[in-house]
UniProtKB/TrEMBL annotation:
This is 6-carboxyhexanoate--CoA ligase. Belongs to the BioW family. Homodimer. GO terms for molecular function: 6-carboxyhexanoate-CoA ligase activity; ATP binding; magnesium ion binding. It is an enzyme of class 6 (ligase). One of its GO terms (biological process) is biotin biosynthetic process. It catalyses: heptanedioate + ATP + CoA = 6-carboxyhexanoyl-CoA + AMP + diphosphate. The gene is bioW.
Length: 252
């Protein structure tokens, strides 16, 4: 049996009580790995570049084998631009490949940046108009319960291709789960880590890393999922937040 372990941390109290989000992470692993992983996640919350958390919540759930869904990893592409403007323009161009209007992306980014602080989850926006479709405020939709099906083999596979680091691993897994939902046409993510100027877009079968998409030192970030107008929001939320998805690497 596998277990889902999830960490959320904040400074100034719990998120629900107005605490400022510091870090979040999760893993799906065996019982024998739980103790060490819990320690690693607590250390991450206490040593993050956004500050030292004073609220840390660890949640652990057992996962039945028949509740697991398997989905393939997205292909990986990388573009390095000369400036933030160039990086953002490349993001707009790539999302247009999946029929997401440039004006919709710009409107959705404006909505994201107008929030009083960084959102804890994702904005869900109409792919054609950019209108926000969820009603969850700063909470947004929090994608959860996902991991590589064979983590060690997956990391070895990507290391051979020159892709390493926890940011890459977590982003690819999340993007692969998100794009496996049929109503989602694409995603745009900008890291909220002030020391990390990389973002990504995902579309079709591709996870595309982009740098830079913001200036170093900028703490603003977040993620936007662009969906078809007729998307069932309750179904989307159940899949992204509650369904356990393990990501496979087909060439392994």
């Amino acid at each position: 049996m596998l277990y889902s372990i999830r960490m959320r941390s904040a400074k100034g109290g719990a998120h629900e009580n107005g605490g400022h989000h510091i870090s979040g992470a999760e893993r799906i692993l065996s019982k024998e790995e739980l103790a060490q992983t819990a320690s690693e996640l607590v250390t991450r919350a206490l040593t993050h570049s956004k500050g030292c958390a004073d609220f840390i919540r660890i949640t652990i759930d057992a996962i039945e084998d028949d509740a697991i869904v398997y989905k393939p990893a997205l292909d990986v592409a990388i573009t390095k631009s000369e400036s933030v403007t160039d990086g953002l323009n490349e993001a707009y161009r790539l999302l247009e490949v999946s029929g997401i209007k440039r004006e919709a992306v710009q409107k959705a980014l404006s909505t994201l940046h107008s929030q009083p602080e960084n959102m804890r989850g994702a904005l869900i926006c109409n792919a054609y108009t950019g209108e926000r479709m969820d009603t969850l405020g700063l909470r947004g939709v929090r994608v959860s319960r996902m991991a590589f099906a064979e983590p060690a083999k997956a990391l070895e596979h990507f290391a051979k291709e020159g892709h390493t680091g926890v940011h890459f691993e977590e982003a690819l897994v999340l993007a692969s789960k998100v794009l496996s939902y049929p109503g989602i046409l694409g995603e745009f993510c900008v890291s909220d880590d002030p020391d990390y100027a990389v973002g990504y877009v995902s579309y079709g079968n591709t996870y595309h890393r982009l740098t830079p998409v913001k200036e170093l030192g900028d703490q603003r970030g977040g993620r936007i999922f662009f969906v078809k107008p007729e998307t069932d929001m309750d179904s989307l939320r159940r899949y992204l937040e509650e369904t356990t998805v393990l990501i496979t690497i087909e060439s392994i």
